[in-house]
Each structure stands twice: as C-alpha cells, then as structure tokens.
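Table S2 (continued). Query chain:
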Amino acid sequence: MKKLVAVAALLLLGVAAFSAPSRAETGSVAVVFTKGGFIVGVGGGEGVLHLRGKNYPFTVSGMSVGLTVGASTTKFVGRALNLRGPASIEGSYAVGGAGGAVAAGAGAVQLQNANGVILQLSGPKVGAEVSAAVGGVTIRLK
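Corresponding output:
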C-alpha cells in the first residue's frame, strides 16, 4: 500500500510539473520616438528590448487623430512586462491621453498589446508639441 501511495504521489507531481503555465518575463526597453503634425500626428522611431542578456532591436510607427500641434522627440526607457519571448513585444498598442512639451518636459505612458505585453515607459520630451489625441503605435522586431 505504501508503494502505491508513493507511486501515485510521484505521478501527481509529474503531471503538475508538466501542466504548470510558463512564466512571463520582464525585459527592459529603450525607445526614441519622434512625432509631429497638425490635427493628425504621425511618428516613428526605434528601440531595443533587452531580455535574457540579449538585445532585440525594433521599429516603432504610429499615428494619432485629434488635437496635435507641433513636433517633439521623446526618449523613453522602462519595462516590458508579461513577455513570452522577444517576439511577443510585436503588435499594435492603443494610446489615449493628453500631453505636451515646450522646450523640454517629461512624458510617461503605459501601453498594452493583444499578446498581453505591457510597456511602462517614461522619459524626457524635447520640442514644442501639444496633443489631446487618440491613436496607436505598432512595434516590429528588425
């Protein structure tokens, strides 16, 4: 009887080990994004995801519709949460909110894509731009 209980316990542990969900990872992100426009804002930039000791370069493109006047460049740094590998950072991220910079200021944003990846970014803005717009950005690995 003791052998049967021991075998059953080992089988349960084995099944639990195989059915455990994979763990999400956190990486660090650095992005330089330049935006400009009047009513419709268009922007783009480049960034790097640092995960598991490796760098994964990517491009960022985006557009916003609403009140946008001027141009700015933002150097964001932050974290990428809920990663399931470097490719999960790819996709479209919705953006909504208001912000602005004159000469120099600060910006912060939190974005999420369909893969469940959350980007928490902040950094200084340089330029003259005021916006109250809704839009989105798309990230693609290079």
